[in-house]
Design brief:
heterodimer; A: mainly alpha; Cytochrome Bc1 Complex, Chain D, domain 2; two-stranded antiparallel sheet; B: elongated
Chain lengths: 129, 173
Amino acid sequence: MTRLFLLSGLAMLSAAAAAETPQQVLAAYQQQAGSASASRGEKFFFAKVPQANGETAGCTSCHTDNPKSVGKTRAHKSIEPLAPIANRERFTDPAKVEKWFKRNCKDVLERECTVQEKADFVAFLISVK
Amino acid sequence: MGVTFKNLGILLVALIASGTWLGTSWGDGSPPTFPPVSNKTVSTECSACHMAYPAGLLPARSWMRMMRELENHFGEDASLSPEETLTISRYLQDNAADSARANDRMRRIAGGIASNAAPLRFTETAYFGYLHDEVPAYVWKRAKIGSRANCIACHTRAETGSFVEREIKIPKD
């Protein structure tokens, strides 16, 4: 039994070691971009981008205009909050962060996001208190 | 035949026995209508934006078409890494409505689809239409339902693969 506890403790430790903190994720983007601005990220987050169908879309279409709120996908499934203060899992898996930047930037902007935009975006969400 | 401890005991045993029997019948003990996704990659990736739909809802050719078009998945980019794409495609193919593992209901879904068609939405199949034809248009538009893709809005145990009638609870708003 004690051994089982030790093993599960070790497993949890190694899982924790594999994950990163939002600050580490930000630092990586910041290093590539040269800078990161929470206020630029805020503008980016709230931007309404004209779409091919004549409507506008943006981050807030699904994530709501409060980064601490639960959002909703088009298929009506809830999305955990973007701000790390409201969601401890957010920005702790760099591969996941990249995956969703790739998808969502293409959906909203019809292009990939720049490293600068990613740095600013993460900086803004970390700054949300 | 008075009220004795013996008679009360018999009554109690009979009640428990029939309760257990009723509780475990009516589908609870039998395999789910459409077994939920059993592969971790599939359940994680395919449930990011919607419920992970059981592979048995569409034939293999539909799933293959969907996996080729993930960059435009119903208007959204749902692209995956080549490894994830391969794992998921394999799982879907092995468990599709026209696979060797299909049950009677899945075979009915597959049988209702023209051989030259590969629908991407289960909700556009004849099987779905037949079973939902009594649901009026205004019900589908209710805020808590919103979309035919939202199985769980009414099928309360959809995520366990169970779609039996007595578990249906249609939201009032």
